[in-house]
Amino acid sequence: MDWFINADTTVHKFALMFFAIFLFVVVMGLILFAVDRPKRIPTWVVALGFLAPTILGLTFGLVYPGLRTIRDSFYDRLGASFVGLDNYVAAFTEEQFQIVLRNTVIWVITVPIMATIIGLVYAVLVDRTRAEYLAKTLIFLPMAISMVGASIIWKFVYEYKPDQPGVNQTGLLNQLLVWVGIPPQQFLLNAPANTFFLIVVMIWIQAGFAMTVLSAAIKAIPDDIVEAARLDGLHGVGMFRFITVPSIRPALIVVVTTIAMGTLKVFDIVRTMTGGNFGTSVVANEFYNQSFTIRNQGLGAALAVILFVLVIPLVVYNVRQLRLSEEIR
Amino acid sequence: MTIPTGKLVDVPPEDSVGVGNRRLTRVEKRAIAAKGKLSSPWASGIAILIAILWTVPTFGLFITSFRPQSEIQSSGWWTILANPGLTLDNYEEVLFGSSTNFATYFVNSIVVTLPAVVIPISLALLAAYAFAWIDFKGRNILFVAVFALQVIPIQVTLIPLLTSYVQWGLSGSFWTIWLSHSIFALPLAIFLLHNFMKEIPASLVEAARVDGAGHVKIFFRVLLPLLAPAIASFAIFQFLWVWNDLLVALTFAGGSTNVAPLTVRIAELSGTRGSSWYLLSAGAFISIIVPLVVFLALQRYFVRGLLAGSVKG
């Protein structure tokens, strides 16, 4: 049995990986083979063959853990005795958690708005220009980079060296400050501004997503509308304000809500850049902290549930918007 | 990474100019557009400024990763022309040095990622087929239920899952990460692939059925080949998501040398040796390079998948 659990050499790891894929293929093959008798087997058995692994997985991995966590959020730090709403009261009233909630609100408001504005402006500016493809790829690239990688990239931009003669700044931002005659700053240490320097990283990642979706929406605006507006004398900013933005409103809303959902759960950036210290923690990071470092299971569960509850209205709004835009079409 | 939720739409290929029935050529359109818009130097200026802001940070770290350790500490990367000298030492140190050992974590990342991409896509394809083309009782309710599961943030599931894995004696193994990633991907994968499946003309499926093909045969012979582009776009998504993930790996693999992927190691290094930039810069690029290559090679599919998950205006 041990061979299947602990792999410690490269060869062993790859062997285990191929074994896992092979096992999966064999099991699925057997199931499909069993239901592949067109005439004799009732349809629901066939459907079960196609769906059973998925339903089992979702029940075990999403439904049960979700319910279990909701239960745990009403129990104490060990999950042993019922404490009612104590965990939620703590999460909303204690000062350290209020900072966490405040930061999360700042993130969820700032990131979607800024990323969407930058993405939209850029999409309009490069639309139908010569270097459009290259220009879009440049903005889009951060999407391929992990949030951990992006955090390292930006941590280096914010790098601080003490302001002494003979010491050169190695972080670009501080060097820029020095060049214009301002003393270098500890960007990641000084609250509350440090939260905004973390937020920059998320905007940097998400603007590419906004740009791509909005660019496709802009290209889908019918040409006759644009032509008519142009004949009426609309140009530049006027065209942007009265034709472009109203035409792509549904796409704008979807972009904002999708980015907001991603931002609500942001964890990697905070964890990599400050570890949640210096007053930069957010709900998803504090959840990890409480659950796995401090090991206060009840409070961790309560924070996860808070996250869950905050996501729901965004998803509902997103889905409703999609429905509406479909009906219009 | 952003998880898209939503509905499939028809999307023009990335490099074509718009949709609809038009007679104008690209060049003519450019001429028209150029007249109205980009004539202002302000507009070009802003666009170039954004492009610079979005590239310089990555470029700076990239240059840094090739500079000697002493140079990195004493001068900024923008002085590279004044202090020339490039080296691969940082990469060698971070890959094979006993304190960093990124080569091992690189292998872990690959071993973690492949099954976590293959398994959920296969499962989702089967499920999506059942929802799209098999008539059974309760189909719609079940589909809506699966769709609704997208709402659950993975944070909510982590502790109970970890407890189950410990009980089963699986904790700290690859199985936990494979299973978790596969399950977390399912709702979105099923939803997107279902939309693609629905777009295939019913007459094709009917024709195969009349010829006596069962569901399994229709699935493999008729639908799979037609779905190749859709599968590719979701596969890239899932690949980037798993390769770049930190939370799931951190929870289930911890810091274990045998299982933890690159992201976990770099995040750890950033905490413990936050000023060792010769290690961090090279390490970051080792983790970035694979998704970057995949992304650039398959950008067309990626954009398609992204737009499928979102909406057209």
> Portion of residues in helices of chain B?
55-70%
In whole angstroms, the N-to-C terminal distance of chain A is 57 Å
Which homologous superfamily in CATH is the superfamily of the largest domain in chain A? Answer: MetI-like
The radius of gyration of chain A is 26 Å
Please give the largest β-sheet of chain A: none
**Shape by Cα distribution of chain A:** globular
Which whole number gives the mean pLDDT of chain B?
82
Question: Stretches of chain A where pLDDT falls below 50 for ≥5 residues?
Answer: none
Question: Secondary-structure element sequence of chain B?
Answer: HHHHHHHHHHHHHH
- Which fold name is given in CATH as the topology of the largest domain in chain B? MetI-like fold
Number of strands of chain A: 0
Task: Tell how many strands the DSSP assignment of chain B holds.
Answer: 0
**H/I helix tally of chain A:** 15
User: What is the count of distinct domains of chain A?
Assistant: 2
Query: What is the CATH C level class of the largest domain in chain A, in words?
Result: Mainly Alpha
Helix content of chain A: over 70%
Mind telling me which CATH architecture of the largest domain in chain B this is? Orthogonal Bundle
Low-pLDDT runs of 5+ residues of chain B are 1-22
Describe the 3D structure.
The complex is a heterodimer of chains A (329) and B (313). Chain A is 73% helix and 0% strand. Chain A has helices spanning 2-5, 10-35, 43-72, 86-93, 95-126, 132-140, 147-157, 172-179, 193-219, 223-231, 236-247, 249-264, 268-273, 283-293, 297-328. The longest helix of chain A is centred in the middle third of the chain and has 32 residues, at 95-126. The N and C termini of chain A lie far apart (57 Å). Chain B has 313 residues and is mainly α. Chain B has two domains: 26-92, no CATH class; 102-308, MetI-like fold, CATH 1.10.3720. In chain B, 69% of the residues lie in helices and 0% in strands. Chain B is built from 14 helices and no strands. Chain B has helices at residues 26-36, 41-64, 69-74, 89-96, 102-133, 139-148, 155-167, 174-198, 202-210, 215-244, 247-253, 262-272, 277-297, 299-308. Chain B is globular and about 75 Å long. The chains are: A mainly alpha (329), B mainly alpha (313). Chains A and B meet through α2, α3, α5, α6 and α7 of A and α1, α2, α3, α5 and α6 of B.
